[in-house]
Amino acid sequence: MRPVFAANTFKLSTQYAVFSAQHANCSMKFPAEKTSLNSPTPHSVPRNSRGTASLNHVKLARLVISFIVEYDILTGKQIHSLVTKCGFSSDPFISTSLIDKYSKYGLLEEARSLFDDISLKDLVLWNVMISCYSWNRLEKEAFLLFKSMRVAGYVCDEFTFSSLLSSCSSLQCKSFGKQTHGLVIKLASDSDTFVTTAIIDMYMKCGCIEDARKAFNIASKRSTVLWNAMIIGYGQNGDGKEAMKLLSQMIRGGQKPDELTLSSVLSSSADSAMANEAAQLHNYVMKNGFWSFLSIGNALIVAYAKIGRIYNALRVFHSICKPDLVSWTSMVTSYAYHGLAIEAIDTFERMIREGINPDKIAFLGVLSACCHAGLLEKGLHHFASMKDGYQIEPSLEHYTCLVDLLGRKGQLSEAYKVIINMPFEPNGDILRAFLGACKVHGDIGKAKWAADRILSVEANEAANYKIMSNMYAGLGSWGDVARLRKMMRDRCGEKAIGCSRIENGGRVHTFVSNDESHPQSSEICCMLRMLLRVMKDADL
Q: Are 198 and 160 in contact (CB under 8 A)?
């Protein structure tokens, strides 16, 4: 615990102790206020007929607020006990603060118990409890509470709808989302930017891109947050081209993008292999003073790496004044992605010398680099240091790299022991890595074991049958080849085929195996044959 935090916690605890001892004997004068009997103010301080407010209530309210700021759950529970002892457990302001605090710590039973004990609930209290369930990924409970709220006769506001739409996004349930959207329109809440943003986010996460675009197009006010929701949504759905178009439209309309807009579009353009767009965005960043934002610098590193411009990524990295963990990790994984293992390992070790502790992603990058380069000792050292030096538990992806590394070096028995003894059930990735190593080194017994395990965990993946079919074909076991191909047809049916994309002249060209639909397919095939001849002549 940090000393400042400890001091603040002690201060709060002292306030609590002093107030607890003196709470019964204090009151103070407040000026009288005019209030309407028909519209009570639930958060107002209790008063008697002479306009005297209880100092107990004021101090208690301040103590609750202090507890929320300090994030001290133990003191909060003590305050809750004091609230009940003083008879303020039904006060909406104090109870709302406590429920919100309990939700941040995941103490949902305490939050719901406190909520149920309040007889006179206001809209704020309902919203906080619904948000509590949504925050903790209990979407069904949020909708059940919303139903109870409607039955009780309360009218929803923008905060209610935002929590419900967030729950729909987490569930990826477009039917609930559309019903909530319909209620928003019925109650004329669709003009609120906060709600419209939540609607767009919900539709995008449910894959309903056209519905999201309709909600965006009819929005009367388009703030930067609203533009960001659409742009991020296109990126999440793999449509980087449309995200770039929307950014251009945003700028032409006089709306200025922020760092979140630009970093999102950079990520989208990288995933869509749009090299020209990434370079244009980099120029815009430099001209408009966004170069100092660390998030944009990190996004540029990843974008350049994904489109094959690793040295541009390195230039961006060197231009960052104080690289953070994300910057270093992005550079390590970028080098590993391009097969530059030595550079990846050097960058990783330099990051540690700079005093930045690596995380799981950084270790995954350096292990991947060691695997590609066949650096067994380095790989074993970094894998061991995860747990021993940094108290990071290796994930299944880290074990996959380790098995692949051991397999490439021919240590199949050690790789087999890792699979058997690791604290996870092996998935298709780690078993395929082991199977490939068994094929290369001719260990048929272990290869058959891996093949059987693959079929048990991924019975509907056509690629698994093809790998094993090729293995049996290499052994001349044609009966097994026929059996596997029949199993593939019966279990997998027609599967989506893989594709590759190349960006040229601002256009992204997509290719699949044996595809002749491209207008220049004959010229492309001719060039490939020529390149193959050159490579054969050069023994490449």
A: no
Sequence-ordered alpha helix ranges (H) in 477-520: 478-492
Does position 362 have pLDDT exceeding 50, yes or no? yes
Distance of CA 8 to the CA centre of its chain: 33
Q: Which two tokens stand for residue 233?
A: 């949504």
What's the average model confidence in pLDDT over 113-137? 82
Whole-angstrom distance, CA of residue 157 vs CA of residue 257? 29
Name the strand (E) or helix (H) holding 333. helix 325-337
Tokens of 56: 């107990």
Residue written as tokens 């040295």?
A: 311
pLDDT digits (tens, 9 = 90+) for 138-157: 878 888 888 888 888 888 88
pLDDT at 494: 54
Name the burial class of residue 345, with classes exposed (0-12), middle (13-18) and buried (19+) by CB atoms within 10 angstroms of its CB: buried
**Whether pTM exceeds 0.70:** no
Where in 417-512 does DSSP place strands (E)?
499-504, 507-512
CB 189 within 8 A of CB 195: yes
Q: Residue for token digits 């000792």?
A: 377
Query: Tokens at residue 427, please?
Result: 């998935």
Instruction: Scan for tokens 């080849």, then name that residue.
Output: 481
Residue ranges covered by each domain of the chain: 222-322, 499-540
